[in-house]
Amino acid sequence: MKRYLILVLLIGLCMNSAGWADMNRQIWDTGSVNENLDGVRAFHEDKRPDMMPFDPAPDIEEVLEESWFGNRADQYYANLWGWVTIPETGTYTWHMHADNHSVLYISTDESWENVQEVASIDGWSNVGEWGGGANGGPNADSAAFQYAAGQILAVWGIMVEGGGGDNLGIGWTMPGSNSIEYISDHVSIIPPTPTKARNPMPEAGAVDVPRDTDLSWAAGKFAATHDVYLGTVFDDVNDATRADPRGVLVSESQADITYDPGILEFGATYYWRIDEVNAPPDSTIFKGKVWEFTVEPFAYAIEGIIATSNGDSDATSGPEKTVDGSGLNAAGQHSVEATDMWLATPGADPLYIQFEFDRVYKLHEMVVWNYNVMFELLLGFGLKDVTIEYSENGEDWTTLGDVTLNQATAKDDYAANTTVAFDGVPVKFVKITVNSGHGPMGQFGLSEVQFMQIPASAREPQPADGAVDVPVGTTLGWRSGREAVSHEVSLGADPNTLELVGTVNTNSFTGADLEFGMDYSWKVDEVNEADAITTWPGAVWGFRTEEYALIDGMEEYTDDEGSRIYETWVDGYGVPANGSQVGYLESPFAEGSIVNSGGQSMPLFYDNSGSAASSEATKSLGGMNLAANGADSLRLFVSGSAPTFYEGADGTILMNAIGNDIWDAADQFRFAYKQLTGDGSMIARVDDLDGSPSSWAKAGVMIRQDTAVGSTHSFMCMTGGDGNGASWQGRETANANSVNADATSPVAPPYWVRIDRAGDTLTGYLSPDGETWTQLGDPRTIEMDDPVLIGLAVTSHNTGQSTGAAFSNVSITGAAGAFEIAEIGVAQPQGNDPAAVYVKLGNSRVTLSDAAATARSGWTEYVIPLSEFGGVTNVQEITVGVEGPGAGLIFIDDVGFGRAYVAP
Question: What is the mean pLDDT of residues 871-879?
């Protein structure tokens, strides 16, 4: 039914364009966040909904039925946005709750350009804890606004989340009401319209931009042509129009989304703007945002200089003071503090100070701040007449000449007042020999010396030096030396034996024959036969190639006809012998929450309970060579679902569960138990726990009075990561709040847990090996009447997603018989029937090593040697399937080929 049901739904949705819709949510999982309001505003500065598509793209894009969400993840940024139609004329006040920092923007119309900040939370609050709560802060409620019935507003909530709990909600107080309600019922269906230019290159605020750069941008959705404004005065670029071009309208009504400004001025800051022009008849002009960038300087300061001298200096006034920046402020002005300068007494030989660079540079000039103590004009410690020499190797010296250095001003705003030109000669060493000073004191000094070099060697490698996961088909790139005519590219696995692989006339090389999972070193030598040095050697850079390239990461599929996931992965729809179904019956067809990476995975339903012996889906590869670039294996990730309760022949126990928690005064979980009278204990090794539903998902051993939701109990569990990965928890009085003692150092499965009962004393223990036990927390007195229940407990801490746990080495003292299964507090899911998963390349089939792969919750990586398949150089199709009796749902993601990295 999926081919036809969705079409009907979409037709109904299109006909209802004036109706209501859900809130749009976008999430960027970054791994680290700037967890404050400045972080919120900075991350989302250019991410208005009308500026889509975003760069970087969100990891998750979906719609929510409510204008709030919670218990999602850690370390991410999120948008929650939509349009609200005002239901009645009157006074409205906006409210928000969030964990953590968040900002709420509202417009007076449907344009995102007009949004204004109306509320914010500089901290956190709980779900439903609006601005009046203790944690939300005074700005979580907006001022009062007057709106008219039918008025459409753009609503945009933004949040940054660190660790722990998380939520974001948008609500309002409507006319005549004192209660706060979510805005969900008043969200309108209005598609975003990116009318303005976006994604500028160079990026906004970029510095050190090459002089020959081209300008480019992403076009507005309806733009037919583009007006380009470019200049060095912000006001001119910001205020100019077609009628008043101010000399900065450099291109009008151009069709291309690139512009060549010619050669730009060294060190200049440029401002630019792109106005998007609609096609006739309206030809509306949408004024763009003004961006800026700064062009590369003519010369760059050399860093990491070593300064030495043959003179005698105090420990606080050595020659290193001339190159360490001490005493210099951001404006290039030097202090009058003696400890910020070099001062030396000559010996028998003429005094000199020598500077050594890390390599040979094309030296442009030397900038000097002379000695600058408060009484310098009287004492004259500063150098006056000097001889300057330079060398490429420290042995063969060339005299640049005799130079007089200007005396310092003896003020704390002293700017450099001597510049010595080197005119681009190749230099690694510079020596200044003192002939005289500005006074008679017999000691000589300098404040600071800077050396400026013209970039002659290749720099800014792409891939960056030290990069990992570099695609094997990558193009090597770099920023050229300024006067290079050609570029010699050398590459190899050993940095000491690089081989020349090509000479090119552009700053990129595409001929590298890279293999998977390898460390490579490379360099680029810049060549110009007309230069004083014909070849400027480059630094040696390194990178590591990716281990696997994707055959399918499941990211390219949409809900549109022709690009749906089941149209590429052909399933068993209408084929009795094939019990598979790819994708959901209703859009979105791909899975957007349970993913190994990116924003989507492939749902694969299997049903081998009837006439079908297997369930499989096949994708055409069109003759792909899976042995290319040294590949030796196929890899895929599979996420299944643990069964209700499964006890294997080897004693392994698999369980799934759902529930908000085992905590507070009422529990929701699955319990597999036996009855215990008197003293007893239980031991189990938690082999695996799927923590993707929540970092507080739990699996462990429990002694409990009964199956009531508020029963007394003692629970020793592993967690999904919080509580250092393990926690003893219990309820000492029926229907009372729980108590706990978390692990004192990080632990993770596989790990052993144990619970003991001695009279009314219950104690929890942890062990890495099942032999050495550590008591967690204090023994607790919890009165329970015999018989009590002793067994395995699992909860997901997420009512929207189940978890799975695997136990082994389970033993119980004091209880016998078969496990009984209880669903406590909430109906529990069925889970998958254990079955094997297989992969076929063409007609060659390999079954994964885990015979119960469908029953493994969370993502499991499976690597299959290509040698196990019949042929891998001309593969026409790939198939993923499930064999064996039973039914269920698994997810497939990141199918790829390659070779694992092996450290040398």
Answer: 96
Q: What angle do CA 92, 98, 100 make, to 5 degrees?
A: 145
Read off the pLDDT of residues 537-568 as tens digits, 9 standing for 90 and up: 999 999 999 999 999 999 999 999 999 999 99
Nearest CA to 200 out of 300, 55, 297, 417 is that of 55
Q: Is 182 exposed, middle or buried (0-12, 13-18, 19+ CB in 10 A)?
A: middle
Using alpha carbons, list the distances in angstroms from residue 517 to 417, 492, 510.
54, 14, 19
What single DSSP character describes residue 382? B
Residue-wise pLDDT tens digits, 510-523: 988 899 999 999 99
Hey, what amino acid is at 152? I
Q: How far apart are CA 700 and CA 703, in angstroms?
A: 10
Q: Which of 861, 778, 798 has its CA nearest to residue 661?
A: 798
- In whole angstroms, how far apart are CA 33 and each of 28, 100, 142, 160, 209? 10, 11, 26, 7, 27
Place of tokens 């889906």: 617
Number of H helices, E strands in the chain: 5, 66
Residue 612 pLDDT: 87
Contact of 372 with 383, CB cutoff 8 Å:
no
**Read out DSSP for 202-215?**
SPTTEEEE-TTPPE
Give CA separation, 156 vs 140, 739, 753, in Å.
14, 39, 46
CA–CA dist 703, 762 (Å, integer): 8
Q: Which amino acid is at 141?
A: D
Top pLDDT among 597 and 163 is at 597
**What pLDDT was estimated at residue 533?**
86
Among the listed residues 451, 453, 417, the one whose alpha carbon sits nearest the alpha carbon of residue 305: 451
For the stretch 464-486, pLDDT in tens is 999 999 999 999 999 999 989 99
Q: CA–CA separation, 516 vs 866, rounded Å?
A: 14
Alpha-carbon gap, residue 334 to 325, rounded angstroms: 9
